[in-house]
Amino acid sequence: MNSSQKNRLKDNAFKYFGIGCTLFGLLMLAIFLGNILIEGIGRIDWGFITSFPSRNPGKAGILPALIGTLWIMGLTAIIAIPLGISAGIYLEEYGKKNRLANILEINISNLAGVPSIIYGLLGLEIFGRIMGMGGSLLAGASTLSLLILPIIIVSTREALKAVPTSIKEASFAMGASKWQTVWYQLLPASFGGIVTGVILALSRAIGETAPLIVIGALAYVPFVPSSPADEFSVLPIQIFNWIGRPQKGFAINAASAIIILLLVTFILNGFAMFLRNRWQRKVKW
Amino acid sequence: MTKTLLKLLILPITAITMVSCGGKKTSDSGNSNLSGDIKIDGSSTVFPITEAVAEDYKAQYPDVKVTVGLSGTGGGFKKFGRGEIDINDASRSIKSVEDSVCKANNITHLELKVAFDGLAVVVNPKNTWVNDITVAELKMIWEPAAQGKIKYWNQIRPEWPKEEIHLFGAGVESGTYDYFTEAIVGKSHSSRGDYTASEDDNVLVQGISTDKLALGFFGIAYFEANKDKLKVVPVDDQKDENGKGPITPSIETVKNKTYAPLGRPLFIYVNSSAAKRPEVQSFIDFYLTNGGALSQEVGYIAMTDEEYTAEKAKFNEFVKALAK
User: Fold this and answer.
1) Which CATH class is domain A48-282?
2) Does residue B176 lie in a domain region?
């Protein structure tokens, strides 16, 4: 066997190994989804979505948790998106490239890897106690905003970096200011990437339980929160609560709530893809 | 660009306002003008009872907002000590450290018993040799000195097989762990560390039901829900005054206290400044009136009627003393 044959063999071997790896992940996901669907799909009806929690698994519903999740997502988006994108633009386009910038950059990347419960403790002390928000929606959303800010900042920077330098230089050559360049050229061109980053970040926030439990999110809320100062529950906490119960009926409820949570995430992701595709068609160089 | 960004921001807001307005119902039905918020947190063991009580209470007093958290007995006492909650669910009594935090913050409180739970000692159904166990034997298995030493069933009783023993139990953060160690080892929060621990009892059920050599403990409700997969072991505390011989946990044996020492009371702790509020008083009264039936419904064991009356009297006295 000559060396080119050997190389081809290695190439093939890696190809099949790669297929195996891909299928492994997908298979696990399929088993998990299948399991959840079989167990939970039959329990989902309008009553399940519009009822309050109950000791009777057949009557229990997810209304306060679902609305709590939507509130948290909305508030987190309102807080984190402007902050994150602005910080990303500053760091990428305005900030000087010196040692301080390097340190900032490393720290932001590290922050993205900090366990979420640490953010919970931080949020409990700063938002909950010092700023007096208690266990409100606002405290929860602020905490989750901190959690996802690094992800938004990093992905905004990456998206801006991906815009060809020639575009930027052309804009400057036409006499545009830095802000005009960012607003009329860079942001529209990098919009798809930024939205993707934002949605990934929000998808992470939607599944978080630990930091919210730490700041005082509740498990039984008999009302629908109507202002950011209200106390709340979210779907992951409702699921966590039901999974720990001894009765089989609650395990089924948990599976159904997981389906709803997945659905919310899918809708969010679908919305992002729709926006991105629409936008990309508009950008032509 | 501006418009799209604006739309992006506005969309979630409108979506939320629409949903929350649509879902909000201000019901005027109900027979009371009581209103206010009652904040409850604490033990996940007591949670189902408090949830059930809050659910039924809401039907009668729709304007009182009762919320219940799941921070665990210890986590709940931390908040309780800072005055952040009105009532703490507890699966054990308050510890002196926790009490001193309350004192430092000028918080006085009252302990009320609301129901019983039995801790069931269980093995795998394929385990043919264990038909009963004594408290002394359980102590031998679980005490800190047993770590790495008590490894085989025949070390506990010579007639049991020389096969490994696999232990499953509550995680060290739970009130259940504190109670079990107190009752069996004699010292709260002290046991061997080399066992499979989980805060989620369903994980323990799963573990024991698939391991022939397993032995573990958890709340009786988890045994009741998984009877076909587990075998419960009667426990003998070798004290004849509370029932001779090994005793199987059941509603009766826990209620009449013969299932000792593994029958345990569950508590709620009431903050005294909260106890001055009429809605809290009415909620506690409702809890002690209906808590028995509701706790049976969610898998726990009711106290006797006399015991509930006694707890009520205790609370009324506490409230009276506060009014002075």
Assistant:
1) mainly alpha
2) yes
Q: CB-CB: which of B16, B65, B222 is closest to A74?
A: B16
| Residues B102-120: tens digit of each pLDDT | 999 999 999 999 999 999 9
Helix (H, G, I), strand (E, B) or coil at A138: helix
Interface of B with A in 260-319 (CB under 8 A): 294, 297-299
Bridge partners for B117 per DSSP: B264
| B18 pLDDT above the threshold of 70 | no
Helix intervals (H) in B159-304: 175-184, 201-209, 220-224, 251-255, 272-275, 278-297
Q: Which of A129, A223, A242, A276 to mutate to test the interface with B (most CBs of B within 10 A)?
A: A223
- Give the closest-approach CA distance of A96 to chain B in angstroms: 27
How far, CA to CA in Å, does A122 sit from each of A116, A206, B92, B315?
Answer: 10, 19, 29, 38
Statement to judge: residues B89 and B109 lie in one domain:
yes
One domain for residues B137 and B176: yes
Which of A55, A63, A184 is facing B48, going by the closest CB pair? Answer: A55
Domains in chain B, number: 2
Interface contact flag, A184 B47, Cβ < 8 Å: no
Q: How large a percentage of chain A has pLDDT more than 90?
A: 72
Q: Is B280 found in the same domain as B259?
A: no
Say whether A184 and B224 touch across the interface (CB within 8 A). Answer: no
B99: containing domain: 36-115+265-323
Q: Is A226 close to B20, i.e. CB distance below 8 A?
A: yes
Closest CA to B141 of B172, B171, B169, B175: B169
Q: What is the pLDDT of residue B241?
A: 83
pLDDT digits (tens, 9 = 90+) for A185-238: 999 889 888 998 998 899 889 988 889 988 889 999 999 999 999 999 999 999
* DSSP H or E segment with residue B52: helix B47-60
For residue range A158-188, what is the model confidence (pLDDT) as tens digits? 999 999 999 999 999 999 999 999 999 999 8
- Are B160 and B272 found together in one domain? no
